[in-house]
Structure formats: structure tokens, C-alpha cells
Amino acid sequence: MKMSFGKEVFLLILCCFSLICFSSSMRRHYKFVVEEALYTRLCSTKSILTVNGEFPGPTIRVHKGDTVYVNVHNKGKHNITLHWHGVKQPRNPWTDGPQYITQCPIQPGGKFRQKIIFSSEEGTLWWHAHSDWIRATVHGAIIIYPRRHSNYPFPQPDAEVPIIFGEWWKNDVNKVYRESVETGGDPNVSDAITINGQPGDLYPCSKSETFKLNVDQGNLYLLRIINAAMNLILFFSVSKHKLTVIGADAAYTKPITNDYICISPGQTMDVLLYANQEPNDYYMAARAYSSGFRVPFTNSTATARIQYSENYYYTPPSTSSCPPLPYLPNYNDTRAAFNFITSIRGLPHENAHEVPKIITTHIVTTVSVNTFPCPRGKSCMGPNGNIFAASMNNISFKTPSYDILEAYYYHIHGVFRKGFPKFPPFVFNFIADSLPVTLNTPKRGTKVVVVKYGATVEVVFQGTNLLSGLDHPMHLHGFSFHVVGYGFGNFNKRKSPMYYNLIDPPLLNTVIVPKNGWAAIRFVADNPGVWFMHCHLERHLSWGMETVFIVKNGKSSHAKLLPPPPDMPPC
Ligand code: C2O
Ligand code: CU
Description:
Elements (H helix, E strand, L loop, with lengths): L1 H25 E15 L2 E8 L8 E4 L3 E8 L7 E4 L25 E7 L5 E7 L9 E7 L13 E10 L4 H11 L8 E4 L16 E4 L4 E8 L5 E6 L4 E6 L2 E8 L1 E4 L4 E7 L6 E9 L12 E7 L25 H8 L6 H4 L9 E12 L14 E6 L2 E3 L6 H6 L7 E2 L24 E3 L1 E5 L4 E8 L8 E5 L4 E8 L18 E2 L1 E4 L3 E8 L4 E7 L2 H6 L2 E6 L20
Copper (II) ion binds next to loops.
């Protein structure tokens, strides 16, 4: 008796101790101070908005299922919001971040304590500003390790490195954005692509600062790749090394090995790189994939280096300081892009959620670049003297000045309207070479999709050739979705679903809709709240290529919205 009592007390103490340890590591706090900082790139110095003075910003590290709090303090001059891209935030859209969708912005001097609830995510995600174009410099990595004491479903890497792609403007990014809004024209393209904040050897004044990854021969590296660029889908490769993709958007994938990857803004990819080459210096390189006809883009190459440590003992045969660049597909090689993109398959057992087979809510939506006529007496810089716009199902989303989530929760009328069309209002040959100009002008409105809790939703995104066919990386907040199909041409309601992959589709939060083609996604609407859906090319988002999903509360108490935090930023 005595013995077992002692044991019980011991166990109790052990239990309390581990609980304390556990909860302290499970509820981590971060302090994010949004502030200006001076950075020098491309031979000139400018002030940029950062978090804690860092560019790219600080990395958030958690284990699967953790909850963290980020204390955001806006010490800058601009309104801002922060978003945790790809974190589903079950029942908690309150701190999700998109400006005027789930909150009003944090004003200069303001604070907001944001709760980030991790659930099924495992791998790499990222956070970024979600107001105007501030995310150009305000972003960083989120690393989600497996649950404590469990392993990766692939060999344990010797080291892990975030690889974050970005874009750098010599000008103030906000000016670039405001100018494009005023003129109605295309915003100026960036002056450089960056890897971990650095453009690399091929740009002026960038050589010494270039990002270097030191490796040991024989070791395995996990690259946690994030495309935080504003407007560029990118090809990325490493000279002489193969890339094995094992995860995307914080879900594991069947390993695929390729010479290059293609990644859109919003997407993340976990890639294994085996340092199995001769000790030497090798380039990594990133360059745009841009398929649009006469669509301007940043046509230059960012580089970083892989340096083998044994290099010290090794004298390269030639003394040239620049190793050769790796192979990258041509900038307009749609085939190369989609051969890779469609090769990614989910790991069904890891992802727990089943692909919905019976669909209760069918949505087909066009994604188009459009124009609005130029107001009389003004001159506009968009196509044919008009103003650039973009739409989903012919509605160019008008961002309200009061957030939709609070309007929904507190029944405030006049902020948004229900009834986003579930089908294109005009059906035409979406991908025809030439289309009547009357189709160019969309409507303007703040129309949302409302679905019941537990609805099984299919969304087909149909690209159009209005103005120019383009690829669109469509992103949904609050969910990961199964990408059940991709195709070129027009989606065919009868035939296309016959080729769906319902066995091992990838589970993503951002899907690239191919130029003049379509992509179909499925998800279960089991997360009550207000969730933004938009193109992750910042140009298109500013022009109105977005809508909002409102998922209603379910019956059980676990299927209802959580109450709002006390410090919601005021409108
Ligand atoms: Cu990367 Cu609306 O988000
Ligand atoms: Cu787009």
C-alpha cells in the first residue's frame, strides 16, 4: 500500500511537472513590433516597414496542434494587419488578419494580441501583412514541427533552412501601389527577386551579401521554401542537385524528385536536398514563370549559393568565381510549370481528412482580368486608356470600410451582400482567342458566399482569356482543400469530373489555375467563420479578384464561432 501510494504521489508530481512544461511550450508568446528600418539593396538605401527590424521577418516555430499568441504593436506610420497564411484557425477568424474582411486595421500606435490556433498543419507556412502592399517587406516563415516525440515521414534531415522568395522595389512599395490605383495602370514591376532578402550575384551591389547555405558533403537538408513574392510565380532550381518535394502548404506529399520546382505566391514547399556532389560552390536560382501575353514582369534571376565546407581542401579546376547557373525552364514554359504542379500528390494517410465524394455546394467561378471605363475628364493608364480591374464571376470585389466578420457577427447591415453567383453569369467560350470587348467590364460589389456548417463544397476556377489569359494562384483562408483536378481549356461539367483524382489529390491552401484552363478544389465547410478567398498575385487582389466565404455555425457547441477577443482593432 505504502509503496504504491508513494508511486502515485511521484506520478502526480511528474504529471504536474510535465503539464507545466508542456503548457509553457504550447502557449508561446511572440512580440511583433511593426517599425521602419533602413535597408540597402541594389546600391541604394531606403526605409522599409519590418517586424522587429528584420527583413524577412522573424520565424515562428511551433509543434503541430500548438496555440501561440503574437502581440502586435504597430509603431509604423501605416495602418496594418497581419495574417497567418495557411493556418486554419478553427472557429477563430477574429485574428486571421485580412484587412476589412475579418478586422479593421491596426492603426499607427495600436496593438492587437493575435491568437494563432494550429490544428492539422504540419510543415511550413508563413505570415504576412494583409493590407495594401505592405506584405512586400512584412512577412516571415512559420515552421510547424511534428507533435513532440514524433518524427517526420521521411529521413531526418541534418539541418533545416527557410528559403524565402521576395521582391524588391527601389521605390517605396506603397507609392508603387498608390500610383497604380491613381492611374488605373499596371503597377511598376519590382527591381529584383530576392532569396532570403538578398537578390544575389547577378544584380548590382549584391555580391557580398548574397545568401549562402553551408553544407557538409553527405548531409541531408530540408529546405522550407516560401514564395512571398508579390506578383511572381517562380521556377527554382539548384545546380547539379535534385530537389525532392515532400510537403506543400503544410501537408506532406508523396515524394517527387525533379530538377526544378514551380511555386506561386502563397505556396510553400518542403524540399529535401542531398549534398551529394563534389565539394564546391553551387548556385540556387529563382526566376519568374509568366505566361501572360504582354504582361510585364520582373525578368531577372535571383541567386544564392550552396557552399560545401570541404571546399577548403578542394581547388576547383577553373578559377572562375562564378559557378554555372542551374537549369531553369523558360519564363513562358507553361508545360514545364504544369508538368511539375500536377505531379504533386497528397499522402492520404497523413492528411487524415478524406476527399469529399458527395458535394452539396457546387460553385463554378471565372477568374478574369478586366477593365472599368476611365472616368470622364481623367486619363487612365490601363489597357486602351481604361482602368485595370479583376473579377470572379464578373464581380469585381469592392472592399468595404468596415470588416465583414464584425458586420456578420453583430448584424450590421450594408457592409456586404449575400448571393455571390454560383455559376458564371455569362457563359461563353472563356478561352477564345478574341472576345467581344463588352465582356471586359465587370460589375462591382461586396458579394459573399454563405454555406451551411458541414457543407461539402466544390469550387471550379475557370480562367478566361479576357485581356490576357494568365495563371492565377487562388488562395482560401480557414481551410486546406483537395485539388481534385486541373485542365486546360473550358471546364466541362459532364466530362471533366470523370478525370478527377479522388484518391491522392494534394491538400493545399493555394492552387495555381492554369492559363486558359481550370482547377477544381473540394473541402468540407467545417470551420465556422468569415474566410477570404482571393488570387495571391497582389495586382489581381488589388483589382478585385476575390470573394468571401461565410460558414455558418453548426448545432453543437464545437461548431460555433469563438467569441471575439477584447482588443479587436477599432474601425
Ligand atoms: Cu497569403 Cu489572404 O493570404
Ligand atoms: Cu490572378
